[in-house]
Design goal:
globular; Rossmann fold; seven-stranded mixed beta sheet
Length: 271
Amino acid sequence: MSSTPIDFAENLERFTGFAALYDRHRPGPPAGLSDCLRHFAGIDALSRVVDLGSGTGLSTRYWAEHAGEVIGVEPTADMRRQAVMLTAAKNVSYREGFSHATGLPDRCAQIVSCSQALHWMEPTATFREAARILQPGGVFAANDYDWPPTTGAWEADAAYEACIATVRRHERELKLRDGLKEWEKDGHLARMRASGMFRHVKEVLLQHTDTGDAERLVGVLLSQGGVMSLLKRGLTESQLGIDVLRETARRVLGTAALPWHWSARVRMGVV
C-alpha cells in the first residue's frame, strides 16, 4: 500500500444529503449475525463491538441487544448526525473516524463488524486496524447483501434491475465513479486471506427476512449513492427510469407489507 494517504472526499460526498431516506429504507443486518459471529469466535457474551462505516446507525443499533457496549465509527457527518438522532440505546455511541484510523485503543473489542461498507474502505489498512483493536481470538466480519432483495413480485425485481442498469450507464457516461475509491465485493475474501492479519478466514451465507411495499422498493433505489449523485447533477427521475419502476412497483406490490428475502454474504476472519 502506498504511504500517501487516500483522499476519500468524493466517497463522503456520495453519501451526503439523504441520510433519513437511507435509514428508513435500507435493511439492517441479518437477524442471525450475532449468534454466527459469537459461535465462530467461541464467545458466550460480547462486552464490546465496534461497527466500522456505521452510517446512520442501522448496523450499529442491531448490536445494542447483543453486546455490553457498541461503538460506531463513521466519517460522514451527515450520516453520523442521523445515527445519533435515532439511537436511544445507552450502550451505543458514535465517533468520527475511518475504518483504517478509528482512534480506538489496542485490543478493545471482541467483534469488529462492517455492514455493506467494506467496498468503500482501503482493505489492507482496514484489516490492519481491525486486527489491532480486536482481542486475541476476536472476529472481523464484513456483511454484504445481494441486491436487490427478492420481493415476491418478479416484475418489480426486474424493473429495479433495469433501473439500476440505466443508472450505471449514466454514471459511466458522466464518469461519476472515476474519483471514487472502491474495491470489488467479490474480492473481499481473497484480500482478507492475503492480508496476513487473520489466522482463519471463512465465508458464510445468512438469510434475512423483513417486509416491504412499493414505496420501500423505490426508497431502496433512492438510497443508492449513484442514484442520488445523478439526481444532484440534475438528471430527472424519468431519465433514470425511476418513474417506470415506481409505476411497476405500485401495480404489482401495492401498499401491503409483503415479505422480502435478502441473502447476506458474511466474510469472517479471526485474529
